[in-house]
């Protein structure tokens, strides 16, 4: 979905079709892997399985083994080719599980002739206990979109043994050198195929021509760089040409040990170990990614990674002066990436949620021609509501529940609204639901709004409405996957829990005027976690989490940030803190709960505070503040 969005663009962002200079991807390639997320909280460690969306997306990837994996990766490769510039390159990082199968798809999408290398990376040392030979390497398939791709030759440093073995000659000033050829394979009809000093290069070797090594170009005049014979004259005048001892009149060039920074990089890499330096299970070493980016892109080029993981590609791109785009399905991954980039003082970047997993899942379950009303009817049924009559329910998203209100002593009528997954449920939807509760079909006792996706400020909105006859619940994000695997509504009925929302509250913002600056003091007050039942935990972990949520709710915050001049559209963080940031305090398990932000004086301003909890859920508060 993210790639399709980048290709499509919108009124504010142009399409990136043909604009990406380098793509590196490290897609999942081991169906047996179970990458759990360990969350350390004060006094307890919680182990979370993949989120419900991740769990079902990855299970779909492997539901039919390798065939379903290839069905997942193929359309993504096609989109990547569309995004690549004509001078662009792609590196696809795999191992022995599926690498050879994906290589066939890469040949089909990018063309066999554009396969430049299979790079072998020795990621670990030998491990004991293997049956047969140890698996100690990954394969990275390197393709270009066309032959005229960006390329910056990389080198590995000479070893002492290599220098001693290969550079055995020495000048009077002590510079070590060796003889290197001045010809290369292939005939040339131009000057590089002409005689020089009476020597035909073809007599040195059949079908050869004169070839000036690239590391000597800086020694030549501008004219000589375009004239091979003149270049040879200039090199001889500088003492860089020696003649073969065997008397055949063959010229060679003096290659000094310092002419090149080392040996040109080859396709087997044993000099980069597998230690990433972090606890993220699948993170690749920074040095590995640096090598790809340095080789196949230039400063200000655009680098993309569509299986972002821990954000190494984005982090290295930022460090090397490249622009970047990175995406990932998992909330923990996105949270780690954001923290990592902030920690390295990255330039301002945009963080967005793109696409709608539920709509795609519904299309897969109900068919491509399904309607949102069909999905609403399923949600209402699983909640236990009966649909309203068609004349009062044109969008098919309203239902009713009738029963005895506990302790009320009378019949209770509840209106239920199932919101669309194409929308963010917010103030407009809730006001409409309240109006329908009060007026539709003679009125109702209460209204329940069931939403898929919510505006970050939904908690503040509910608080501001202060309506005891309004309830807002979360539709399980894995609902369509569970429906598909269970085989229908009837088999799933009674097993679906609609959770309460997470939300944030803060103390009133304090403003102190200092010259032309306002100093804002923002204090976190409370954070209410999404119902623990909606998080993929076992009973023991859920109980431990509930205890922390009851005793110290702010300890659940992983990251928070402040925009003191929020425009209601783009959140621009000017202050942030996150767990593990020892710049603000020494407590690695808690964020600081108070921030002071200095900003130019304004009469009134909107302050936005956003938090991300340890499970990747977000909430925000927006408050209007008058300068004191």
TrEMBL record:
Domain called DNA methylase N-4/N-6: residue spans: 20-334
Keyword Methyltransferase: yes
Gene Ontology molecular function, alphabetical: DNA binding; N-methyltransferase activity; site-specific DNA-methyltransferase (adenine-specific) activity
Taxonomy, superkingdom: Bacteria
Catalytic activity, reaction form: a 2'-deoxyadenosine in DNA + S-adenosyl-L-methionine = an N(6)-methyl-2'-deoxyadenosine in DNA + S-adenosyl-L-homocysteine + H(+)
InterPro entries cross-referenced by the UniProt entry: DNA_methylase_N4/N6, DNA_methylase_N6_adenine_CS, N4/N6-MTase_EcoPI_Mod-like, SAM-dependent_MTases_sf
Gene3D superfamilies attached to this UniProt entry: Vaccinia Virus protein VP39
EC number assigned by the record: 2.1.1.72
Pfam hit, one: N6_N4_Mtase
Gene Ontology terms: biological process: methylation
Keywords: Methyltransferase, S-adenosyl-L-methionine, Transferase
UniProt similarity note: Belongs to the N(4)/N(6)-methyltransferase family.
UniProt protein name: site-specific DNA-methyltransferase (adenine-specific)
